[in-house]
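Whether sequence alone determines local backbone shape is best considered at the level of individual chains. For completeness, the protein is quoted in full, as a sequence line and a line of structure tokens:
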Amino acid sequence: MRLTRALSAAVVLLGLAAAPAAAGSSPSASPARDGDAPTTAGTSFRTAAEFEQGQVATANGAAGDYLYWSFPADAGQRPTVKATVKLPKTHAAQTWRVDVYDGLRRRQACQWGAQVRTADAGTSSVELACVLRTVRAWTEPWANDPLPGTYYVRLTAVNVPSSDLGVPVSAEVRADSKDIGGAAAVDGSLAEPLVPGIAVASGAGADDEEDRGAVLSAIEPEDGWSSGWWSDRWVWSGIGAVLAALAGIGGYALTRGSGRPSRVPPGA
């Protein structure tokens, strides 16, 4: 009877822990605040327009321009960048490309998505997408794994015909993330996220206004940068420990028997 009650309690705990873990595997529902989204794009990494995940950043430009934006991504997130380019009624065939770089300006490969597409003559728009690998809290120095910090989006047309150079276009960019959770957890974390100016800010004194002004990025996740040590892996580890203890108790109860038979004298 006691064993049955203990197993029932373990099942309840398992269900309660599985619920948040399953919820963490769905796309993050960060509210979009389009009113605060940038309406222009930068022309280089240093001038990239900052926007939050869930926002739709827009910009007007011309075929042949390099358009740059940046957004924050934290450990355990798998970002998806989508871009839409609206073209004029009359244009030749154009090939558009979206690239994503991390805080060290290393180009990150797309797991899947239409990173490069060609818009045939007369096409009104072209849509691009890039699904990155999961952002890791820590990695080896020689690896090219995505790390927490600022991510840069570069949108441009490649091999533009000379007749289309300077043709006006408009672009929309949006970034969203799926929370992978404990499946991507690692035993380690960065001292600071890879955000422009973070090294200067970390080494500056509290009263050094000039050095604090060197911080180039003001964006971060809504809940702040994670410390990298907590994940739902701890929950599952705790459940495993409880189940192991219950299994030990159950095994002991089943194998110890009913004790000394009443017909056997104590001294036997």
Remarks:
- Helices lie at 2-24, 198-203, 209-212, 232-255.
